[in-house]
Design goal:
Blueprint (H helix, E strand, L loop, with lengths): L1 E3 L5 E7 L2 H4 L10 H10 L1 E5 L4 E3 L7 E7 L2 E6 L5 E7 L4 E2 L1 H6 L6 E4 L3 E7 H8 L3 H27 L2 H15 L5 E3 L4 H8 L3 H13 L3 E4 L2 E4 L2 H10 L3
Amino acid sequence: MCCRNRHGKRFFTGELYGIDILKTIALFSGLTADQLETLSQIAVRKTYHRGDYIFHEGDKGNGIYIVETGRIKVFKLSMDGKEQILHIYGPGHTFGEVPVFQGKNFPASSMALEPAGIIFLPRDRFVKLLTTSPALGMNMLADLSRRLRDFTVQIEALSLKEVPARLAAYLLTLSREQNNEARVRLPISKAQLSNLIGTTPETISRMFKKMGDAGLIAVQTRTIDIQNKEGLEDLSESGRL
């Protein structure tokens, strides 16, 4: 069924979520069959088109979102309309949880970068479930701790490291996320990547060429072969190319 939120953006809602899907998500590992059954009764799948907003900055934190398929970005806009991407999430990642626990508004906006299936857990019912599930509470704590660590690393990179170090660090992060030490695929465009690490698309292209000339990587459109992982790790620390 097609609906529109208060900003006029469309999204599609689906039926309640099945246990077989929920138990494959790391956040719900350790839950009993009864707890998964309870969770399935409150989880709803929403489908978004590319470019659809999932929520806007300032919207009430009404629930937790989990990416099932596709990719989404979390971002902020400056007063002059300049965009700063804070996070890009793929399948299995949660987002929007902090304001849910605080009972406050979302501090940033989120948008689908491609057709995306999102699992939505309404705030009140999810918080109630947390009180009866220590395993779920511990999983949430671990996920939030990891998110804080990643955000700290991102802030450090943007404020202290040079562009080559930021780009190398991002490629190494992709390698870990995609479980492939030899090859990664960029999930976003060069323009979006430049926004994420705080530079320009032209600089990204120059850095890719220099890293290729140095024998660190080989670039084939969005596919990047990692030819010297140790060298890439050194670059992510030193920034010297």
